């Protein structure tokens, strides 16, 4: 089966968590909105609005898997985790992996709010002052709180470089992506935190060097970070 | 088995989505932090920090179910949905219900951000101006966008009063809670929207009149909405 991923073609965004899972799984998929010279986004929007779709999505990403159309990033990963052994097969492990994913999703939402505290419908340029305010709290308080939590999970799990059990899970891939995103957006702040959360940064490095992930990251399937996505680098927010 | 729910004792918050599912299921549970005259929150924090817990939570709520300790609201509901027939048993239905729940969770997070656009670590009183800005967008753009989506889901499903299939799911209970919260926080805005999303409001009424939910809502287990929770009524934001 060839999966169809529907997501914005010019950003990593939330779709990137799915792309990484598909890459690690070695799955056959087409990134629909990127695969067509034009019309890809139109096709995506059509599928979002179509009454023929019984399980419409509020927003991208969504994944077509045979007859299923699955929306919400964490939900797509829950599904892929089961299909491609990117999560334990037993219920306890499956729930724990999903819990970690949802916690990462909370951090991702906060990372987005940093540059859009007044709402996603307004330009960053019109909320720079408020963004600075929020960024200060995010860097001083929120990033450390989240990374401390994941550092503890890694410490408890004993297995280096894995959040869950002894093999790679989609939560590991997502943790990699979050650290990569934070490194991009807040390089100075993250440099200061590196020594405090060594396991988190080691996991990031370990995932990056997995053969399929490394190949993916080196390919043009990996869209560079940019200031349209979730993790944005604005020099003035990284203080 | 008696469940143990761990959540803040004085607010509905995210714990309320779990409380409603437990009420509808007729499950035996203790609301730990509320059940003790004092020490309940201490017990909750201890379980969050304990190294003996292999699946620690970043934040409440979390649910103890036998040997499992499950965190993240949507994840708890995924589990309870399977145990208490509050979601379809087949994979497609289970994923769809979860997708809807995660979409509701996004709306809940935005409802919280309305009164804390600069960050949860600062007092509302110190971000009133920014809150007004964000509230305007939330009322004008975001609430309608979300309610329009759920209205469409209800319309497509044919079965009145259910988001998924022909029986109640945890997504229905959560939709009820979101509408109840928005009604509390933004009564004037919601009054204006009532005619535009009749199915959403009908679902809210239908859930409220389910025998177990009605009994729960009338009991002192239902904590009144207040200005410490997620849905807060500040007159100045409801314009």
Q: How would you characterize this protein structure?
A:
Two copies of one chain form a homodimer. With 239 residues, chain A is of the alpha+beta class. The first copy, chain A, folds into two domains: 81 residues, Glutaredoxin, CATH 3.40.30; 120 residues, Glutathione S-transferase Yfyf (Class Pi), Chain A, domain 2 (Up-down Bundle). Helices cover 56% and strands 6% of the residues of chain A. Chain A contains ten helices and four strands. Chain A has a four-stranded mixed β-sheet with strand order 2-1-3-4. In chain A, helix 1 packs parallel to helix 4 and helix 1 packs across helix 7. The longest helix of chain A has 30 residues. At the A-B interface, strand 4, helix 4, helix 5 and helix 6 of A face strand 4, helix 4, helix 5 and helix 6 of B.
Which chain pair has the greatest contact?
A: A-B, 43 and 43 residues
Radius of gyration of chain A, taken over Cα atoms and rounded to an integer in Å: 18 Å
Overall geometry of chain A comes to: globular
Number of helices of chain A: 10
Q: Quick one: biggest sheet of chain A?
A: 4 strands, mixed
Q: Which terms summarize this structure?
A:
239 residues, alpha+beta, Glutathione S-transferase Yfyf (Class Pi), Chain A, domain 2, four-stranded mixed sheet, 4 strands, globular
Briefly, what is this?
The structure is a homodimer of 239-residue chains. The first copy, chain A, is of the alpha+beta class and 239 residues long.
């Amino acid at each position: 089966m060839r999966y169809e991923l529907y997501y914005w073609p010019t950003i990593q965004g939330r779709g990137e968590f799915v792309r990484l899972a598909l890459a690690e799984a070695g799955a056959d998929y087409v990134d629909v909105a990127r695969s067509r010279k034009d019309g890809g986004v139109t096709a995506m929007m059509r599928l979002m609005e179509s009454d023929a779709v019984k399980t419409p999505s509020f927003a991208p990403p969504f994944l077509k898997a045979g007859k299923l159309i699955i929306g919400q990033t964490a939900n797509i990963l829950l599904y892929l985790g089961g299909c491609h052994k990117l999560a334990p097969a037993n219920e306890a492990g499956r729930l724990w992996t999903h819990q970690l994913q949802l916690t990462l999703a909370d951090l991702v939402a906060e990372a987005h709010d940093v540059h859009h505290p007044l709402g996603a419908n307004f330009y960053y340029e019109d909320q720079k002052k408020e963004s600075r305010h929020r960024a200060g709290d995010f860097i001083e308080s929120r990033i450390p709180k989240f990374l401390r939590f994941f550092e503890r999970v890694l410490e408890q799990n004993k297995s280096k470089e894995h959040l869950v059990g002894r093999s790679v899970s989609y939560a590991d891939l997502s943790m990699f992506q979050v650290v990569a995103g934070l490194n991009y957006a807040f390089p100075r702040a993250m440099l200061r935190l590196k020594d405090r959360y060594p396991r988190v940064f080691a996991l990031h490095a370990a995932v990056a060097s997995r053969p399929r992930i490394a190949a993916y990251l080196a390919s043009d399937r990996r869209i560079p970070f940019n200031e349209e996505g979730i993790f944005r680098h604005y020099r003035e927010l990284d203080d």
